[in-house]
Write a structure and sequence with these properties.
Residues 16-222 form the Nucleoside phosphorylase domain. InterPro entries: DeoD-type (IPR004402), Nucleoside_phosphorylase_d (IPR000845), Nucleoside_phosphorylase_sf (IPR035994). Its EC number is 2.4.2.3. This protein has helices at residues 23-33, 67-80, 132-142, 165-173, 183-193, 216-221, 224-235, and strands at 16-19, 35-41, 48-53, 56-61, 85-94, 104-112, 149-156, 178-180, 196-206. It is of the alpha/beta class. It has one domain (16-235): Rossmann fold (3-Layer(aba) Sandwich), CATH 3.40.50.1580. A 5-stranded mixed beta barrel has the order 5-8-7-6-9, surrounded by 4 helices.
């Protein structure tokens, strides 16, 4: 079986998928966290590796950047390859002072300016939410960890260079914890397919004070805490 964006044999993709945005991060997860990892698809440089975590088959595959890119892969994974759960593990910009750079955010909801919030029900902006079972498992796994973990809504922005201080301030007043570019698309795809999804994010910079912007190398390597929480959610 193959689609325009994923080319592999039936059964090569596991029912559980860990999905960073960056293809290099997906490869790093496969090589360091999966046992017996095998590259099963590499269309357009978006590699998919399938191996095992504690004996359970898991695939690590990147989504690319933004809702449109993620939606292509998530839709094909759910619809064509029998995937049941996808957990996004990525980065975001922190908003409130209570969230520091390198803290972890478990996205219990995703606000967005993307059309995924309105396209399925014209005139209605849907509330995009994750799987409760995955959310609960992630929160349980995060308790007692070494790194600070926050649970709450994030904002999925369709524009990386968009959203000024007024927008960020208004989002902060509504309890929004971070800004990223994919979670709402993932939640929308899961809801449409009747499947499950969650986003677990590491704050890579702070939008209110500009502090602690992580380097590209740090973004690739300093996500182990979020990764373990994401794995717990997948395996729950």
């Amino acid at each position: 079986m193959s689609t325009p964006h994923i080319a592999c044999e039936p059964g090569d993709i596991a029912p559980l998928v860990i999905m960073p945005g960056d293809p290099k991060r997906a490869e790093r997860i496969a090589r360091t966290r999966l046992t017996d990892a095998k590259l099963v698809s590499d269309v357009r440089g978006i590699g998919a590796w399938t191996g095992h975590i504690d004996g359970t088959p898991v695939t690590a595959m990147a989504s690319g950047m933004g809702v449109p890119s993620l939606s292509i892969y998530a839709t094909e994974l759910y619809r064509d390859f029998g995937v049941e759960r996808i957990c996004r593990v990525g980065t975001c910009g922190a908003i409130p002072r209570s969230v520091a750079v390198r803290d972890i955010i478990i996205a219990s909801a995703a606000h967005t300016n993307s059309s995924v919030a309105t396209i399925n029900v014209p005139g209605v902006a849907l509330s995009l939410a994750p799987s409760f079972d995955m959310l609960r498992a992630a929160v349980d796994a995060a308790r007692g960890g070494e790194r600070a973990v926050h649970v709450g809504p994030v904002f999925t922005n369709d524009f990386f260079y968009g959203g000024g201080p007024d927008t960020i301030g208004a989002l902060s007043a509504l309890g929004t914890l971070g800004v990223e570019m994919e979670a709402a698309g993932l939640y929308a795809c899961a809801l449409a397919a009747g499947k499950e999804a969650l986003a677990v994010l590491t704050a890579s910079d702070h939008l209110m004070d500009g502090s602690g912007d992580l380097t590209a190398e740090e973004r690739e390597t300093l996500f182990s805490g979020a990764l373990e929480i994401a794995i717990a959610a997948l395996l729950a």
